[in-house]
Amino acid sequence: MKSIKLGNSQFKASTVALGIMRMNVLSDADAVKVIETAHDAGINFIDSADIYGQGESENVFGRALKQSSLNREDFYIQSKGGIVVDPEKSHGSVVLGSRYDFSKQHLLDAVDGELQRMGVDYLDSFLLHRPDALMEPEEIVEAFDELQMSGKVRHFGVSNFNPGQVDFLQANLNQRLMINQLQFGIMHTGAIDFGIHTNMHDDDSIDHDGGMIEYSRLHNMTIQAWSPYQYGAFEGPFIDNPKFPELNDYLQELADKYGVTKNAIATAWIVRHPAHIQVILGSMNPQHIQESAAGADVELTKQEWYNVYFKAGHDLP
Ligand SMILES: NC(=O)c1ccc[n+]([C@@H]2O[C@H](COP(=O)([O-])OP(=O)(O)OC[C@H]3O[C@@H](n4cnc5c(N)ncnc54)[C@H](OP(=O)(O)O)[C@@H]3O)[C@@H](O)[C@H]2O)c1
């Protein structure tokens, strides 16, 4: 498995990471299989959040890590915080927030809960999950300083932030923001569409994120692509989905050429971007995990990369 350097650190992370958002529904034995398969496939990075399964995903992961043949040090473990769950609207793996909260106490409590549920002493990184409109930098500065000094968190980052929000926060912090996690994949390409369609009148010319990919490349921040195989916001996977016949036919053609599966090609498409994007896959099926991870080592040609983009419904101006 190819690796990428995380932000400005020396840490080499696997290009494909495993997200545990959907782990709450697994038995402990199945969760052991999932993390051992991921590790065997070259994955050394786990992405979590306090809200996944309202905490249950981290409970399952923590028990699985203990019962597995693996150690804490086999994985770089990342979690996120800053969302207050609305338990009435949330069920199973679908978790909705009642507000965002970047107050010092909320962030400190979030990390303590994560460490306790996963049964670990420290997080390799902690991300602010979604920008809190009421964020007060002084509170975040105090929280991050305390988390770093106590050894509970080693690195920091954000998720779903635009460049202005990153600049604003970074100007106050004592730590470098190393990571920004954004939705990105073949069927979620807002982050590149508007660059290709600059100054045109069509929908693809709309800037949804303020140029996060170019900003991250300039500032040496790692972009992590969440929900890489979903279309829309959690509508379901596009792979094998009869709504996208042309795209699936072309993914199959490339899969046959490279001797892999469509999942691998969907991974390879993200990895082909020169921004060194890390793919956070969410499958809880060991076979899908192996197939998806294999895509990190497939290098699509430029024309194949553009062809996939066209089959997903885009064009060039
Ligand atoms: N920062 C954020 O705001 C944010 C938001 C959402 C998610 N995330 C992170 O991103 C991670 C991944 O998100 P995700 O789970 O939505 O990503 P995903 O990998 O795009 O989707 C996973 C889902 O697709 C299914 N799938 C994969 N390959 C398939 C195939 N060939 N055929 C049929 N179904 C297939 C999986 O089912 P199987 O289990 O059966 O394979 C699973 O239900 C999460 O775990 C979390 O860590 C972050």
From TrEMBL:
Residues 17-305 form the NADP-dependent oxidoreductase domain. Signal peptide: none annotated. InterPro entries: AKR_Detox_Biosynth (IPR050523), NAD(P)_OxRdtase_dom_sf (IPR036812), NADP_OxRdtase_dom (IPR023210). Pfam families: Aldo_ket_red. GO terms for cellular component: cytosol. This is Oxidoreductase. It comes from Secundilactobacillus oryzae JCM 18671. The lineage of its organism: Bacteria, Bacillati, Bacillota, Bacilli, Lactobacillales.
